[in-house]
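Summary for the steering committee. One of the milestones for this cycle was to obtain a three-dimensional model of the protein with protoporphyrin IX containing FE bound, which we needed before selecting residues for the alanine scan. The sequence and ligand used are listed below.
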Amino acid sequence: MSATQAPHRETHALYPPTAEPAAQPLPLRRFLLRFVRNPLLTLPRSAYEEGIVVHDNGRGIVAYVTDPALIERILLGDAERFPKTALERRVFEHTLGDGILTSQGASWRWQRRTAAPLFRPADLAALVPVMSAAAEEQIARWERAPAGVLHPIDQDMTETTFRVISATMFAGSADAEADAILHSADIALSSISWDIAAAMLRFPEWLWYPGKYRRRRAGRNLRHAVSTILSRRRAHDGGAHDLLARLIGARDPDTGQPMSEKQLIDNLVTFLAAGHETTAKALTWSLYLLARAPEWQHRIRREVREVAGTSQIDAGLLERLTITRAVLEEAMRLYPPAPVMTRQVGVDIELGGMPLPAGAAIVIPIFAVHRHRKLWDDPDRFDPQRFLPERKAHVGRTQYMPFGFGARTCIGASFAMMEGVAILATLVRRIDFEWDGEHLPEPLSRVTLRPKGGMPLHVWPLKPAAT
Ligand code: HEM
């Protein structure tokens, strides 16, 4: 196996893929070309250095906000003045409709209250063995291949986390549709920057742009696969107490009505998609960083061996895996699985000394907050020690925010952390991941943060004696 740089010296991520801000709004063509290639390329460098940068892109005002205090105001203190955006609704209406992620007001509150009881950390603990078992199945698949070959880690993690969400929240009902869902979700996200750019620039609905109809078709296929799951459950109830059953049984507190077929599908697609794709990316980038920094791989392996021996990872053991958790947290700092959040200005307002008109777009680039020059010491360096208990206490809640913040914070955050730590611990205990020495994956913002060119890594199963 090839040696790589000493991990504590590794300034691996290089300067983030940003570009100098244009002094004037970029001409439409240049803006579009940059945005569809990778929206992170349109983030001004000043967003990594200042707290708020206001820019007129020629079609409207955009404020890039990275100051933790201003973010807290937008997402909590003054949240009702910074609603979710019309842009987000337009981009997602063909796939996620009016589900929990995209809805607002009373409709959102009801959907959130309906789902929330399933995400209580105490109740999630029982699901940890299912998460660990999904990782063990992945190891068994790798062990059937010749040792040391390159595997597409991003795809493998997507399949593993999909199995987890299907088994835990859908009582396995989504397994039969896994291929159709994963394929359609991949197409729907792969070039979604075109849809976002079209919405931002207010293209009329009828206007053609690349990939539009292919992505719409993928969205329809995704919804069709989910409606099959729903029909099958209605035909054979089976008495499951999962998310699917909860959503079917929910009643609107005002009208007493159940969710319509459309609302159910909106939410099922949302939970299936949001519930696996982000965690898969967190694991993919974690394994990449570990392959670049083998010392941290050894530290995790040592920790898991000491804490769990060869036992399956369960909720009780999770608590004690502090190094594994710190690695996952540091990976989500450098590569936040959801790299950008947006809101819009509801009424004319002042923010950080800048007057912003109603309708202006607010961009919270989590990617830039997590690598901000003034918020972090040596921001591009992979250093999990930042998240070991003694130092973690000093990290602000909107300085590090992979799961968002405020009332709309990720409902699945505890689920994802349990899953991420359980899977990472299970994999690293039994597998050595090696970088191929060449591939430097550019992080591409496609709603989630994808590695350009995928994530090929050499996979070396370890002999049980070495675990
Ligand atoms: C590492 C994994 C994950 C990351 C980084 C992540 C990130 C986020 C972020 C940043 C938001 C806030 C969006 C906003 O306010 O605009 C969010 C919301 C949401 N997430 Fe996650 N998420 C993860 C895993 C999950 C899982 C496992 C589930 C479900 C099982 C889930 C379901 C949701 C839902 C339903 C919302 C919308 C909540 C609302 O608007 O009330 N996420 N997520």
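Key point for the committee: Residues 1-11 have pLDDT under 50 and may be disordered.
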